[in-house]
Amino acid sequence: MTFTQQSVGKGHLLEVRNLAVHFQMREPRRRILKAVDGISYSLRKGGSLGLVGESGSGKSVSALAVMGLLPAQGCTVTGEALLEGRNLAAMDQTALRGIRGREIGMIFQDPMSSLNPTIRIGEQVAEPLRWHGLMTARAADTRALELLELVGIPDPGKRFWEYPFQFSGGMRQRVMIAMALACNPKLLIADEPTTALDVTVQMQVLRLIARLRRERGTAVFLVSHDLGVVAEVCERIIVMYAGRIVESAPVSVFMREPAHPYSRKLLQSSPRLGRRMEPLDPIPGSPPDPLQLPSGCAFHPRCSSLMEICARETPPIFQCTADHASACWLHKGMPATP
Amino acid sequence: MSLNDTKGHVIARTDTASTVGNKRKSEVVLRVIGLTKHFPVKKGFFGREAGRVQAVNDVSFYLREKETLGLVGESGCGKTTTGRLILQLIRPTRGEVRLLDSPDLTTLTNRQLLPWRRRIQMIFQDPYSSLNPRMTVGSIIGEALTIHRLAKGSEKQERVGHLLREVGLNAGSMKRFPHEFSGGQRQRIGIARALAVEPCVIIADEPVSALDVSIQSQIINLLQRLQEERGISFVFIAHDLSVVGHISHRVAVMYLGSIVEIGPKLALFEQPFHPYTQALLAAVPKPDPAKRGTRAILQGDVPSPIKPPPGCPFHPRCPRRFNPCDKIAPMLEQRTEGHFVACHLYHGSPASDEAPA
């Protein structure tokens, strides 16, 4: 509905429409926590999209919902997540298992806990190929070796036989990427892929993701709290706040002229290299409690451009330009989608 | 060993020489000389020593009044250990730590340290585990006042209330427990606790790393305001160069337990000498897609501190290594006013007159 202006055309790989994830709370009883509250976006074939937000904004939950990895109990997912027209949100786990790892590759934040410590690296990389029945065991091993080489593991012939504990954090994340790419997926979902890594290693991994996207045409959906990381890899950026999308734009436009007051403040208030020691201009207050969201626009208690309407009505998404949208009453008058 | 000693003294001596030009000489409040910590690695049933983790190797620096020294480096480079060694939370293998006119803190017993601990405090990275969940905020902050016999009874309450207001919380918070606060608020409580005993130096170990971006800048502003108002000096330990670059006056870059470059912030960021500093600066993701992919990035990983490479610890990853790098460990030498670098590339070229003979 929203943020999908161009998505009517063909060539869209992933199209998320009005996705919502509600958790049934045990404590306080029977309350509903709206972790994701109706978000829509799309990602073209071979494209790259970055999702940015603070902790608790719903960014990881929305990525997990797309992959069907949320627990079945106590959690309701509504809306659609269309992968080339097939609705992932409506599929059962059996159908999803045929898609995960094969059409969608995944990388998670912690490269230690995502690898099995008792299985050799080579076998783990080959596993998705065998599991999906794409190759014989021997062919899968050969392919796994190629993959290790592709992601820049030095001496792959030897490392193939080693265990995860013999790998450093950056190397483990490369192994994760090799596994994710094993079946040549169309889409790579990376949830905070470099947060656990050091800066110099982070840059190696980001470059690797960008290179693989360029060479193999794998679309990338990157979730991160770090604007810099998204700017390094992605074409488009979406910003989430309190379970909703507040802004969506091409990265270059966003960095130059962010439209939503939250994104504007976020960019202004982060310390940056080369700036002097003037006091920063921080966003006052803290992110809201998802069980007690403020009325109207969830950002209004912290907003410096507060207007009377903000506390009363939730803003629709206003289309500032063809590919730049912002959910803020400041843009009232622009074409809007609820 | 003799080389190491000289290195320590170069830094320790140059502090007076390099006090910038005509500005008033501010007093040196903290002096660290040749600080070293090797942790034994035990193996087997009898705890035979199988090796040593050279966590911190011969680190020397000074800190002036009302100054912030940023300590940056990747994980495992020894920056946190350095902070704890200064406070004597871990006892160093070698080296000296002097605070104001104190004797060498490393030679004091815990009891003798107590009066000096009032002068130097710490803020921890994790605002969740660094506050006792069973104590009220009032008793967490008031505990320090009791231990140092600074106040009791209603006077203590009053001072705690005042401290809470100073860090931007209301005085009523003192009856509440840590779990009732958000991460940013807890970090404010940690800061109030450090301030309670009126220290002149605070070691801040990654104080904003666990916080959300929008909260980080609030805490950074708070620390800067406190420095301005109370004249506190900070050793600011962080892995995030942009945060360090914002808050620090001088910056020290650590790699595998040693300081590889130290100097005034602007000089260091605008003209980094050490190839590692250059790589570290290049690796900061910049929120500008136009600059994407143009910078050289570092290959490989940080080596193990149990078996550090011979010579310069950075040489296996260094894009500019040459002949002496894998044989001789470079020493810190002054390149420009107050800007020291430990790299063979610059050895012998216009260095300081303080260069060791």
Provide structural commentary.
- The complex is a heterodimer of chains A (338) and B (357).
- Chain A is 29% helix and 24% strand.
- Chain A contains ten helices and 13 strands.
- The termini of chain A are close together.
- Chain B is globular, with a radius of gyration of 21 Å.
- Chain B has ten helices and eleven strands.
- The longest helix of chain B has 18 residues, at 213-230.
- Classes of the chains: A alpha/beta (338), B alpha/beta (357).
- Chains A and B meet through α7, α8, α9 and α10 of A and α7, α8 and α10 of B.
Summarize the structure.
With 338 residues, chain A is of the alpha/beta class. Chain A is 29% helix and 24% strand.
Characteristic terms for this protein:
heterodimer, A: 338 residues, alpha/beta, four-stranded antiparallel β-sheet, 13 strands, 24% strand, B: 357 residues, eight-stranded mixed β-sheet, three-stranded antiparallel β-sheet, 31% helix, globular
Secondary-structure blueprint of this entry?
The complex is a heterodimer of chains A (338) and B (357).
Chain A: E1 12-24, E2 32-44, E3 48-52, H1 59-67, E4 75-83, E5 86-87, H2 93-99, E6 104-107, H3 121-131, H4 137-150, H5 156-159, H6 169-181, E7 187-191, H7 199-216, E8 219-224, H8 227-233, E9 236-241, E10 244-250, H9 251-256, H10 261-269, E11 317-321, E12 324-326, E13 336-337
Parallel strand pairs in A: 3-8, 3-9, 6-7, 7-8
Antiparallel strand pairs in A: 1-2, 1-4, 4-5, 9-10, 10-12, 11-12, 11-13
Helix pairs in contact in A: 3-4, 3-6, 4-6, 6-7
Chain B: H1 2-17, E1 28-43, E2 48-64, E3 68-72, H2 79-86, E4 94-99, H3 110-117, E5 120-123, H4 137-147, H5 153-166, H6 183-195, E6 201-205, H7 213-230, E7 233-238, H8 241-247, E8 250-255, E9 258-264, H9 265-270, H10 275-282, E10 333-336, E11 339-341
Parallel strand pairs in B: 3-7, 3-8, 5-6, 6-7
Antiparallel strand pairs in B: 1-2, 1-4, 8-9, 9-11, 10-11
Helix pairs in contact in B: 4-5, 4-6, 5-6, 6-7
